Amino acid sequence: MEKLRRAVKQIAYTKPHSESLSAVQLSLIPLLSFASSLYSVALRLRRQLYRFNILTKHRLPVPVISVGNLTWGGNGKTPMVEFLARSLADDGISPLILTRGYGGADEAKMLERQLQGTSARIGVGANRAAIAASFLERYGYITFHGSSEKLSSDEKAQNASISDRIGAAILDDGMQHLSVWRDLEIVMVNALMPWGNHQLLPLGPLREPLSELGRADIIIIHHADLVLFALFLFPLLVLKNVYSNNFIGVKRLKADAPNVLQVQEKDAGALESTIRKVKRSAPIFFTKMAPIHFFSCRDISCKVVLEAVQNMVVLCLSGIGFADSFIQRIQRMGPAYVDHVDFSDHHFFQLKDIEMVQTRLRALESEFDSKPIVVVTEKDYDRAPEMLDRLKPYEVLVLHCRLQFLSTENSFKKIMKQHLSQR
Protein backbone atom coordinates (compact mmCIF):
# COMPACT_ATOMS: atom_id res chain seq x y z
CA MET A 1 0.00 0.00 0.00
CA GLU A 2 2.84 2.38 0.83
CA LYS A 3 4.43 1.78 -2.58
CA LEU A 4 1.09 2.48 -4.30
CA ARG A 5 0.66 5.74 -2.39
CA ARG A 6 4.12 6.84 -3.43
CA ALA A 7 3.43 5.98 -7.05
CA VAL A 8 0.16 7.94 -7.08
CA LYS A 9 1.79 10.93 -5.39
CA GLN A 10 4.56 11.02 -7.98
CA ILE A 11 1.94 10.97 -10.74
CA ALA A 12 0.10 13.85 -9.06
CA TYR A 13 3.19 16.04 -9.03
CA THR A 14 4.55 15.15 -12.48
CA LYS A 15 3.56 16.37 -15.92
CA PRO A 16 1.36 13.88 -17.84
CA HIS A 17 3.32 11.33 -19.89
CA SER A 18 6.59 12.48 -18.33
CA GLU A 19 9.61 10.28 -18.95
CA SER A 20 10.17 10.18 -15.19
CA LEU A 21 7.07 8.02 -14.74
CA SER A 22 7.47 4.25 -14.84
CA ALA A 23 5.44 1.97 -17.06
CA VAL A 24 3.39 0.89 -14.05
CA GLN A 25 2.61 4.50 -13.17
CA LEU A 26 1.62 5.29 -16.74
CA SER A 27 -0.72 2.31 -16.71
CA LEU A 28 -2.45 3.72 -13.62
CA ILE A 29 -3.27 7.06 -15.25
CA PRO A 30 -6.46 5.96 -17.13
CA LEU A 31 -7.94 4.50 -13.94
CA LEU A 32 -6.97 7.54 -11.88
CA SER A 33 -8.38 9.84 -14.56
CA PHE A 34 -11.74 8.03 -14.49
CA ALA A 35 -11.81 8.24 -10.69
CA SER A 36 -11.02 11.97 -10.86
CA SER A 37 -13.96 12.48 -13.22
CA LEU A 38 -16.29 10.78 -10.76
CA TYR A 39 -14.84 12.87 -7.95
CA SER A 40 -15.47 16.05 -9.96
CA VAL A 41 -19.12 15.11 -10.49
CA ALA A 42 -19.52 14.37 -6.76
CA LEU A 43 -18.00 17.77 -5.89
CA ARG A 44 -20.38 19.67 -8.15
CA LEU A 45 -23.37 17.73 -6.86
CA ARG A 46 -22.41 18.38 -3.27
CA ARG A 47 -22.03 22.11 -3.86
CA GLN A 48 -25.47 22.25 -5.48
CA LEU A 49 -27.05 20.41 -2.55
CA TYR A 50 -25.71 23.09 -0.20
CA ARG A 51 -26.62 25.88 -2.60
CA PHE A 52 -30.28 24.85 -2.66
CA ASN A 53 -30.34 24.13 1.10
CA ILE A 54 -30.96 20.43 0.62
CA LEU A 55 -27.92 19.96 2.82
CA THR A 56 -27.91 22.32 5.81
CA LYS A 57 -25.20 24.77 6.82
CA HIS A 58 -25.04 25.30 10.57
CA ARG A 59 -24.47 28.80 11.91
CA LEU A 60 -22.59 28.87 15.20
CA PRO A 61 -23.27 31.68 17.70
CA VAL A 62 -19.57 32.62 17.67
CA PRO A 63 -17.37 33.74 14.75
CA VAL A 64 -15.84 30.86 12.77
CA ILE A 65 -12.41 30.85 11.10
CA SER A 66 -11.81 28.14 8.52
CA VAL A 67 -8.23 27.05 7.80
CA GLY A 68 -7.99 24.84 4.74
CA ASN A 69 -6.31 24.17 1.43
CA LEU A 70 -6.95 22.99 -2.11
CA THR A 71 -4.44 20.13 -2.11
CA TRP A 72 -3.60 17.20 0.13
CA GLY A 73 -1.23 17.55 3.15
CA GLY A 74 1.86 19.63 3.83
CA ASN A 75 0.34 23.10 3.48
CA GLY A 76 0.72 24.27 7.07
CA LYS A 77 -2.92 24.09 8.16
CA THR A 78 -2.26 22.76 11.65
CA PRO A 79 0.57 25.25 12.43
CA MET A 80 -1.77 28.04 11.30
CA VAL A 81 -4.51 26.70 13.57
CA GLU A 82 -2.07 26.76 16.48
CA PHE A 83 -1.02 30.33 15.58
CA LEU A 84 -4.65 31.51 15.44
CA ALA A 85 -5.60 29.77 18.70
CA ARG A 86 -2.61 31.23 20.50
CA SER A 87 -3.29 34.72 19.10
CA LEU A 88 -6.95 34.65 20.11
CA ALA A 89 -6.13 33.30 23.57
CA ASP A 90 -3.51 36.03 24.06
CA ASP A 91 -6.23 38.58 23.24
CA GLY A 92 -8.53 37.10 25.89
CA ILE A 93 -10.75 35.22 23.41
CA SER A 94 -11.10 31.52 24.22
CA PRO A 95 -10.97 29.58 20.93
CA LEU A 96 -12.59 26.24 20.17
CA ILE A 97 -10.65 24.19 17.62
CA LEU A 98 -12.83 21.80 15.63
CA THR A 99 -10.85 19.02 13.98
CA ARG A 100 -11.88 15.75 12.43
CA GLY A 101 -9.12 13.77 14.11
CA TYR A 102 -8.00 11.98 10.98
CA GLY A 103 -5.09 9.51 11.11
CA GLY A 104 -5.32 8.59 14.78
CA ALA A 105 -5.93 12.23 15.77
CA ASP A 106 -2.18 12.94 15.67
CA GLU A 107 -2.79 16.61 14.82
CA ALA A 108 -5.33 16.98 17.64
CA LYS A 109 -2.87 15.45 20.10
CA MET A 110 -0.15 17.77 18.89
CA LEU A 111 -2.39 20.85 19.24
CA GLU A 112 -3.46 19.76 22.71
CA ARG A 113 0.17 19.48 23.83
CA GLN A 114 1.25 22.73 22.13
CA LEU A 115 -1.66 24.77 23.51
CA GLN A 116 -1.53 23.38 27.02
CA GLY A 117 -1.89 26.22 29.50
CA THR A 118 -3.90 28.44 27.16
CA SER A 119 -7.68 28.91 27.08
CA ALA A 120 -7.95 26.94 23.80
CA ARG A 121 -10.20 23.88 23.70
CA ILE A 122 -10.15 21.11 21.12
CA GLY A 123 -13.18 19.23 19.85
CA VAL A 124 -12.51 16.08 17.82
CA GLY A 125 -15.04 14.41 15.56
CA ALA A 126 -16.38 14.20 12.00
CA ASN A 127 -19.63 16.04 12.85
CA ARG A 128 -18.05 19.34 13.78
CA ALA A 129 -21.37 21.16 14.14
CA ALA A 130 -22.48 18.66 16.79
CA ILE A 131 -19.09 18.81 18.53
CA ALA A 132 -19.28 22.61 18.59
CA ALA A 133 -22.81 22.53 20.00
CA SER A 134 -21.72 20.28 22.87
CA PHE A 135 -18.78 22.55 23.78
CA LEU A 136 -20.90 25.70 23.59
CA GLU A 137 -23.50 24.06 25.79
CA ARG A 138 -20.87 23.04 28.30
CA TYR A 139 -18.84 26.24 28.51
CA GLY A 140 -21.15 28.94 27.22
CA TYR A 141 -20.03 31.61 24.78
CA ILE A 142 -19.55 35.33 24.28
CA THR A 143 -19.50 37.54 21.21
CA PHE A 144 -16.24 38.60 19.63
CA HIS A 145 -16.54 42.02 21.31
CA GLY A 146 -16.93 40.38 24.70
CA SER A 147 -20.58 41.05 25.50
CA SER A 148 -22.39 38.08 27.01
CA GLU A 149 -24.75 35.99 24.96
CA LYS A 150 -27.39 33.62 26.20
CA LEU A 151 -25.72 30.67 27.92
CA SER A 152 -26.87 27.11 27.91
CA SER A 153 -28.34 27.49 31.41
CA ASP A 154 -28.65 30.11 34.15
CA GLU A 155 -26.57 27.95 36.45
CA LYS A 156 -23.68 27.82 33.98
CA ALA A 157 -23.99 31.56 33.41
CA GLN A 158 -23.49 32.18 37.12
CA ASN A 159 -20.60 29.76 37.54
CA ALA A 160 -18.64 30.27 34.33
CA SER A 161 -16.05 33.02 34.19
CA ILE A 162 -15.63 35.14 31.09
CA SER A 163 -12.37 33.37 30.27
CA ASP A 164 -14.13 29.99 30.27
CA ARG A 165 -16.65 31.02 27.63
CA ILE A 166 -15.88 30.32 23.99
CA GLY A 167 -15.39 33.42 21.86
CA ALA A 168 -14.49 31.96 18.44
CA ALA A 169 -14.26 28.64 16.62
CA ILE A 170 -11.46 27.47 14.32
CA LEU A 171 -12.22 24.84 11.67
CA ASP A 172 -9.08 22.77 11.13
CA ASP A 173 -8.99 21.57 7.51
CA GLY A 174 -12.27 23.38 7.03
CA MET A 175 -12.37 24.44 3.38
CA GLN A 176 -14.18 21.29 2.24
CA HIS A 177 -16.31 21.13 5.41
CA LEU A 178 -19.30 23.04 4.04
CA SER A 179 -21.77 22.13 6.80
CA VAL A 180 -20.54 24.98 9.05
CA TRP A 181 -20.82 28.66 8.12
CA ARG A 182 -17.55 30.54 8.37
CA ASP A 183 -16.86 34.24 8.82
CA LEU A 184 -13.28 34.03 7.59
CA GLU A 185 -11.85 31.61 5.02
CA ILE A 186 -8.06 31.20 5.18
CA VAL A 187 -6.51 29.07 2.43
CA MET A 188 -2.99 27.68 2.82
CA VAL A 189 -0.79 27.11 -0.26
CA ASN A 190 2.48 25.15 -0.28
CA ALA A 191 5.07 27.38 -1.98
CA LEU A 192 7.22 24.37 -2.91
CA MET A 193 4.51 22.16 -4.42
CA PRO A 194 1.38 24.28 -4.97
CA TRP A 195 -0.86 22.60 -7.54
CA GLY A 196 1.00 19.57 -8.90
CA ASN A 197 -0.38 18.53 -12.30
CA HIS A 198 -3.50 20.70 -11.75
CA GLN A 199 -5.75 17.61 -11.69
CA LEU A 200 -8.34 16.59 -9.11
CA LEU A 201 -7.87 13.65 -6.78
CA PRO A 202 -6.73 10.94 -7.23
CA LEU A 203 -5.05 11.76 -10.57
CA GLY A 204 -3.75 15.01 -9.09
CA PRO A 205 -3.39 16.60 -5.65
CA LEU A 206 -6.34 19.03 -5.93
CA ARG A 207 -9.21 18.45 -3.55
CA GLU A 208 -11.16 21.18 -5.38
CA PRO A 209 -10.62 23.05 -8.66
CA LEU A 210 -8.21 25.99 -8.59
CA SER A 211 -11.17 28.30 -9.23
CA GLU A 212 -12.36 27.65 -5.66
CA LEU A 213 -9.59 29.96 -4.46
CA GLY A 214 -12.21 32.60 -5.18
CA ARG A 215 -13.86 31.70 -1.86
CA ALA A 216 -10.76 32.70 0.12
CA ASP A 217 -10.71 35.82 2.29
CA ILE A 218 -6.99 35.45 3.05
CA ILE A 219 -4.39 33.36 1.22
CA ILE A 220 -1.22 32.17 2.94
CA ILE A 221 1.79 31.02 0.90
CA HIS A 222 3.56 28.66 3.29
CA HIS A 223 7.19 27.42 3.21
CA ALA A 224 7.97 30.63 1.29
CA ASP A 225 11.43 30.82 2.86
CA LEU A 226 12.46 27.52 1.28
CA VAL A 227 11.85 28.57 -2.32
CA LEU A 228 15.32 29.98 -2.97
CA PHE A 229 16.93 27.10 -1.10
CA ALA A 230 15.02 24.58 -3.19
CA LEU A 231 15.80 26.31 -6.46
CA PHE A 232 19.52 26.86 -6.04
CA LEU A 233 21.23 25.02 -3.16
CA PHE A 234 19.16 21.83 -2.92
CA PRO A 235 19.61 20.67 -6.57
CA LEU A 236 23.38 21.02 -6.12
CA LEU A 237 23.19 18.73 -3.10
CA VAL A 238 21.09 16.32 -5.14
CA LEU A 239 23.65 16.09 -7.93
CA LYS A 240 26.44 15.58 -5.43
CA ASN A 241 24.73 12.95 -3.31
CA VAL A 242 22.40 10.94 -5.59
CA TYR A 243 22.20 7.49 -4.11
CA SER A 244 19.52 4.90 -3.48
CA ASN A 245 19.25 1.51 -1.79
CA ASN A 246 16.86 -1.37 -1.31
CA PHE A 247 14.96 0.02 1.67
CA ILE A 248 11.45 1.23 0.89
CA GLY A 249 11.20 4.99 1.27
CA VAL A 250 14.88 5.53 2.08
CA LYS A 251 16.95 7.99 0.10
CA ARG A 252 20.12 9.86 0.88
CA LEU A 253 19.33 13.54 0.64
CA LYS A 254 17.15 13.42 -2.47
CA ALA A 255 17.52 10.68 -5.00
CA ASP A 256 14.69 11.97 -7.20
CA ALA A 257 15.57 15.50 -8.30
CA PRO A 258 12.68 17.99 -8.56
CA ASN A 259 10.87 17.57 -11.87
CA VAL A 260 10.26 20.40 -14.32
CA LEU A 261 6.70 20.97 -13.16
CA GLN A 262 7.79 21.60 -9.56
CA VAL A 263 10.68 23.89 -10.53
CA GLN A 264 8.41 26.02 -12.71
CA GLU A 265 6.02 26.60 -9.82
CA LYS A 266 8.52 27.21 -7.03
CA ASP A 267 8.98 30.92 -7.63
CA ALA A 268 6.89 32.73 -5.03
CA GLY A 269 6.26 35.69 -7.33
CA ALA A 270 4.92 33.48 -10.12
CA LEU A 271 2.77 31.64 -7.59
CA GLU A 272 1.32 34.90 -6.32
CA SER A 273 0.57 35.91 -9.92
CA THR A 274 -1.32 32.65 -10.50
CA ILE A 275 -3.38 33.25 -7.37
CA ARG A 276 -4.18 36.83 -8.44
CA LYS A 277 -5.71 35.57 -11.67
CA VAL A 278 -8.28 33.68 -9.60
CA LYS A 279 -8.69 35.99 -6.60
CA ARG A 280 -7.41 39.50 -7.27
CA SER A 281 -8.72 41.10 -4.07
CA ALA A 282 -7.63 38.63 -1.38
CA PRO A 283 -4.65 39.70 0.75
CA ILE A 284 -1.69 37.33 0.40
CA PHE A 285 0.77 36.64 3.22
CA PHE A 286 3.96 34.59 3.30
CA THR A 287 4.84 32.27 6.18
CA LYS A 288 7.47 29.76 7.21
CA MET A 289 8.02 27.14 9.88
CA ALA A 290 10.60 28.53 12.31
CA PRO A 291 12.53 25.87 14.26
CA ILE A 292 12.61 26.76 17.98
CA HIS A 293 14.39 23.82 19.59
CA PHE A 294 14.43 20.03 19.78
CA PHE A 295 13.07 18.00 22.65
CA SER A 296 13.92 14.46 23.60
CA CYS A 297 11.44 11.79 22.54
CA ARG A 298 12.01 10.03 25.87
CA ASP A 299 11.65 13.17 28.00
CA ILE A 300 9.67 15.99 26.38
CA SER A 301 10.68 18.36 29.18
CA CYS A 302 14.30 18.05 28.01
CA LYS A 303 14.90 20.86 25.51
CA VAL A 304 17.84 20.52 23.12
CA VAL A 305 19.36 23.41 21.16
CA LEU A 306 19.19 23.37 17.37
CA GLU A 307 22.99 23.29 17.17
CA ALA A 308 22.91 19.75 18.57
CA VAL A 309 22.76 18.32 15.02
CA GLN A 310 25.67 20.35 13.66
CA ASN A 311 28.38 18.10 12.19
CA MET A 312 26.32 15.04 13.14
CA VAL A 313 24.96 12.19 11.03
CA VAL A 314 21.18 12.64 11.01
CA LEU A 315 18.33 10.39 9.89
CA CYS A 316 15.05 12.26 9.32
CA LEU A 317 12.09 9.95 9.95
CA SER A 318 8.62 11.20 9.02
CA GLY A 319 5.08 10.32 8.06
CA ILE A 320 3.77 13.73 7.04
CA GLY A 321 2.20 15.32 3.99
CA PHE A 322 5.32 17.06 2.71
CA ALA A 323 8.57 15.65 4.07
CA ASP A 324 10.84 17.75 1.84
CA SER A 325 10.31 20.91 3.89
CA PHE A 326 11.21 19.06 7.09
CA ILE A 327 14.36 17.59 5.53
CA GLN A 328 15.46 20.91 4.10
CA ARG A 329 15.13 22.63 7.48
CA ILE A 330 17.33 20.00 9.08
CA GLN A 331 19.88 20.38 6.28
CA ARG A 332 20.05 24.11 7.01
CA MET A 333 21.19 23.37 10.57
CA GLY A 334 24.58 22.14 9.40
CA PRO A 335 24.68 18.36 9.96
CA ALA A 336 27.58 16.45 8.45
CA TYR A 337 25.20 14.10 6.62
CA VAL A 338 21.44 13.76 6.20
CA ASP A 339 19.55 10.59 5.37
CA HIS A 340 15.78 10.22 5.48
CA VAL A 341 12.99 7.68 5.63
CA ASP A 342 9.63 9.02 4.45
CA PHE A 343 6.19 7.48 4.81
CA SER A 344 2.80 8.76 3.66
CA ASP A 345 0.85 11.29 5.70
CA HIS A 346 -0.50 10.02 9.06
CA HIS A 347 1.40 6.74 8.69
CA PHE A 348 1.40 4.85 11.97
CA PHE A 349 4.82 3.30 12.45
CA GLN A 350 4.72 -0.47 12.65
CA LEU A 351 7.30 -2.77 14.22
CA LYS A 352 8.58 -3.71 10.74
CA ASP A 353 9.12 -0.01 10.02
CA ILE A 354 11.13 0.43 13.20
CA GLU A 355 13.22 -2.63 12.42
CA MET A 356 13.93 -1.26 8.93
CA VAL A 357 14.98 2.09 10.42
CA GLN A 358 17.23 0.36 12.94
CA THR A 359 18.92 -1.53 10.12
CA ARG A 360 19.49 1.75 8.29
CA LEU A 361 20.89 3.37 11.45
CA ARG A 362 23.35 0.54 11.96
CA ALA A 363 24.47 0.90 8.34
CA LEU A 364 25.00 4.64 8.80
CA GLU A 365 26.91 4.06 12.04
CA SER A 366 29.17 1.56 10.31
CA GLU A 367 29.73 3.80 7.31
CA PHE A 368 30.53 7.00 9.22
CA ASP A 369 31.93 5.48 12.41
CA SER A 370 29.58 7.77 14.33
CA LYS A 371 26.24 7.09 16.03
CA PRO A 372 23.52 8.85 14.02
CA ILE A 373 20.72 10.95 15.54
CA VAL A 374 17.09 10.35 14.56
CA VAL A 375 15.01 13.49 14.07
CA VAL A 376 11.20 13.41 13.78
CA THR A 377 8.43 16.00 13.54
CA GLU A 378 6.05 16.77 16.40
CA LYS A 379 3.22 15.21 14.46
CA ASP A 380 5.15 11.93 14.19
CA TYR A 381 5.97 12.03 17.90
CA ASP A 382 2.38 12.59 18.97
CA ARG A 383 1.15 9.82 16.71
CA ALA A 384 3.39 7.06 18.04
CA PRO A 385 5.79 7.98 20.89
CA GLU A 386 5.91 4.40 22.14
CA MET A 387 7.07 3.09 18.74
CA LEU A 388 9.79 5.72 18.48
CA ASP A 389 11.04 4.66 21.89
CA ARG A 390 11.92 1.29 20.33
CA LEU A 391 14.75 2.96 18.40
CA LYS A 392 17.02 2.70 21.45
CA PRO A 393 19.98 3.01 21.84
CA TYR A 394 19.83 5.73 19.18
CA GLU A 395 18.84 9.21 20.31
CA VAL A 396 15.49 10.46 18.96
CA LEU A 397 14.96 14.22 18.86
CA VAL A 398 11.67 15.97 18.04
CA LEU A 399 11.84 19.24 16.13
CA HIS A 400 9.61 21.91 17.68
CA CYS A 401 8.58 24.64 15.22
CA ARG A 402 6.25 27.62 15.16
CA LEU A 403 4.58 29.28 12.19
CA GLN A 404 6.01 32.74 11.54
CA PHE A 405 5.03 35.45 9.08
CA LEU A 406 7.60 36.71 6.61
CA SER A 407 5.30 39.65 5.86
CA THR A 408 3.66 41.87 8.48
CA GLU A 409 1.97 39.76 11.12
CA ASN A 410 0.07 42.73 12.54
CA SER A 411 -1.60 43.35 9.17
CA PHE A 412 -2.83 39.77 9.12
CA LYS A 413 -4.25 40.06 12.65
CA LYS A 414 -5.95 43.34 11.79
CA ILE A 415 -7.69 41.85 8.74
CA MET A 416 -8.68 38.78 10.75
CA LYS A 417 -10.29 40.87 13.49
CA GLN A 418 -12.10 43.04 10.93
CA HIS A 419 -13.72 39.95 9.41
CA LEU A 420 -14.74 38.56 12.79
CA SER A 421 -16.09 41.84 14.10
CA GLN A 422 -18.22 42.36 10.96
CA ARG A 423 -20.30 39.38 12.01
Automatic annotation (TrEMBL):
The chain crosses the membrane at residues 20-42. One of its GO terms (cellular component) is membrane. Its EC number is 2.7.1.130. Keywords: ATP-binding, Kinase, Lipid A biosynthesis, Lipid biosynthesis, Lipid metabolism, Membrane, Nucleotide-binding, Transferase, Transmembrane, Transmembrane helix. Pathway: Glycolipid biosynthesis; lipid IV(A) biosynthesis; lipid IV(A) from (3R)-3-hydroxytetradecanoyl-[acyl-carrier-protein] and UDP-N-acetyl-alpha-D-glucosamine: step 6/6. The keyword rRNA-binding does not apply. It comes from the Eukaryota. NCBIfam families: lpxK. The keyword Transmembrane applies. This is tetraacyldisaccharide 4'-kinase. One of its GO terms (biological process) is lipid A biosynthetic process. GO terms for molecular function: ATP binding; lipid-A 4'-kinase activity.
